[in-house]
């Protein structure tokens, strides 16, 4: 099947099934293969626009779970009741509206920097975005939690994988079928968060239990 036909296939499937973009199938394939979402999970979705990952999160965590998404772009209304999209920057989830002290079972990042057309430049920018997502885990990811983040393949990827493996028990790169074949994007799936490295700020604050889903949802 030609690449254009594959792309059209996932776009058609997204429209047919009511997802906001074909990216929904990337998360479904990641979860089916690597098991990143569980019923009742609380999930933080970085770079959530237009909301397709939040749709999948809502389905897979069920009514007892919840998802909080953050993006610089406003996400259209109409998402399921157990997920919420916030307008803001991923560097400051609390400033965007995520309750301070909340710990998530999974942090997911589909974020990408603005591309320049230079493969090397775009790769290193994507590494910086991954480093941001990894740094956020110190405050927002529970012990033994899961991190998923997108990177464009390149020279710095081995070092990034090594850095992730210092902080997580199991780390695997994975390219979903729904990704374009010619794209250099790949997802790093990390299970079993061990916490910040020695000497790094440890900002995790213990909380008595999962905060309730706001009534406004």
What is shown here, in short?
This protein is α/β, with parallel strands linked by helices. The protein has six helices and seven strands. 38% of the residues are buried.
Explain this structure to me?
This protein is an alpha/beta fold. The protein has one domain: Rossmann fold (3-Layer(aba) Sandwich), CATH 3.40.50. 34% of the residues lie in helices and 23% in strands. It has 6 helices and 7 strands. A 7-stranded mixed sheet has the order 3-2-1-4-5-7-6, with helices on both faces. Strand 1, helix 3 and strand 2 form a beta-alpha-beta unit. Helix 2 runs parallel beside helix 3.
Order of helices and strands: HHEHEEHEHEHEE
Strand content: 15-25%
The coarse overall form would be globular
* Uncertain ranges: 1-6, 204-217
CA-CA gap between termini = 42 Å
Q: Averaged pLDDT, please?
A: 89
Features:
alpha/beta; 7 strands; globular; single chain; Rossmann fold; seven-stranded mixed sheet; disordered C terminus; 217 residues
